Amino acid sequence: MSGDALAVAMQDMFATEVADKYILTGTTNTAVYIDRVPSSPTFPYVLVVTNFPTVAERSLARSVSARVLKSRTVVVGSSASSVRIIAQKLTDRLEGQRPDVAGWVLGSIESIPNDQPIQPDLDVTIPGTAENPMYQPFDWILTGSPTP
Fold first, then answer.
1. Fewer CB within 10 Å: N-end or C-end of the chain?
2. Domains recognised in the chain with CATH numbers
3. Whole-model pTM?
4. Cα angle at 94 between 91 and 97, to 5 degrees?
């Protein structure tokens, strides 16, 4: 089973496709962008970037017995309050969830503390305003083993 299947399964845990666009599950107005943000994004939004699952454990024979998938989500809103509200919805949707992927035995999705504060993005201005959006990154891991 490909490592990309794990990334897609994790992304599908919180994003729902609606009219060729992804939104945060459980909301009606939070866009979700996978891998990159378009030049004119819809605010608020969540950016999701997920790596390839890396080896976490090997057996004595050196075969891979566990892999870990890391993902970073960046919550972007018009204010610190909107970032916190969206971050809570994101956390409620991801923390402790266990995706189902054929060919893998998976643990649950866990947050990784990164101590990043909510801060303004001084390189961006919200369209129609003179305001800079606020953002905060969150890190997640998913550990699993390929089925024999």
1. C
2. 3-146 (3.30.2000.10)
3. 0.86
4. 140
Token reading at 109? 């999705």
pLDDT per residue, tens digit, the chain (148 aa), is 467 787 888 878 877 777 666 777 766 688 999 889 998 898 999 999 988 887 777 878 887 778 889 999 999 999 999 999 999 999 998 999 999 888 889 999 999 999 999 999 999 999 889 999 999 999 999 998 888 7
Of 22, 42, 144, 41, nearest in space to 93 by CA: 22
Query: Using an 8 Å Cβ cutoff, are 45 and 31 in contact?
Result: yes
Task: Compute the chain's Rg from CA coordinates.
Answer: 17
